[in-house]
Design a protein that fits this description.
The chain contains 5 helices and 5 strands; from the N terminus they run βββααβααβα. With 163 residues, the protein is α+β, with helices and mostly antiparallel strands. The chain has 2 domains: 61 residues, no CATH class; 80 residues, Winged helix-like DNA-binding domain superfamily/Winged helix DNA-binding domain (Arc Repressor Mutant, subunit A). The strands form 2 sheets. Strands 1-2-3 form a 3-stranded antiparallel beta sheet, covered by helices on one side. A two-stranded parallel sheet has the order 4-5. 28% of the residues are buried.
């Protein structure tokens, strides 16, 4: 059974659904979180810890949506293959207000021919925005796909561009 605290954050791009377990963010979604989107966890989250994490995250999201780099420092708990973890870590190194292509991200992880696999790994990111996969675009400059939809991706990139 999954024991998590679920919350929502009202953002300029819509409602963010947030799952927290043991004071770690485990999922963020632009639509309601479904059980299959959450990793299987054991134990019980401490509500006070989760509430503190949520308060910190809310402040950092407020900073982000005001057009400033919040330097997200909320603890994340990510689950994936070694390749996915490398992709997500490289994605987190893309500075606020900048973008990289799928091919550039593939080169960053040492596998220049893996642009398509990078895109697939980004599509499996359970923590968009905090793992900023919206900053990864196509080599031709087109926005590309996004879990929250292309319009949300474009809005997030616009927010960062206006810094």
């Amino acid at each position: 059974m999954v024991n998590t605290e679920l919350s929502i954050y009202h953002s300029p791009v819509g409602i963010l659904h947030i799952a927290i377990h043991d004071a770690h963010i485990i999922a963020v979604s632009f639509s309601e979180l479904r059980p299959e989107q959450l990793p299987l966890l054991s134990g019980r989250s401490g509500t006070d810890l989760c509430n503190g994490t949520l308060a910190d995250l809310s402040l950092q999201l407020d900073t982000y949506f005001s057009g400033n780099d919040p330097y997200f420092n909320i603890p994340l708990r990510v689950y994936g293959t070694d390749f996915e973890l490398r992709v997500w870590k490289a994605c987190m190194n893309i500075p606020f207000g900048e973008t990289r292509s799928y091919g550039e991200l593939a080169r960053d992880i040492g596998n220049a021919r893996a642009a398509r696999a990078v895109g697939n790994a980004l599509s499996l990111n359970r923590i968009p925005l905090l793992i900023p996969c919206h900053r990864v675009i196509r080599a031709n400059g087109e926005t590309g796909e996004y879990a929250g939809g292309v319009k949300i991706k474009e809005k997030l990139l616009q927010i960062e561009k206006e810094q």
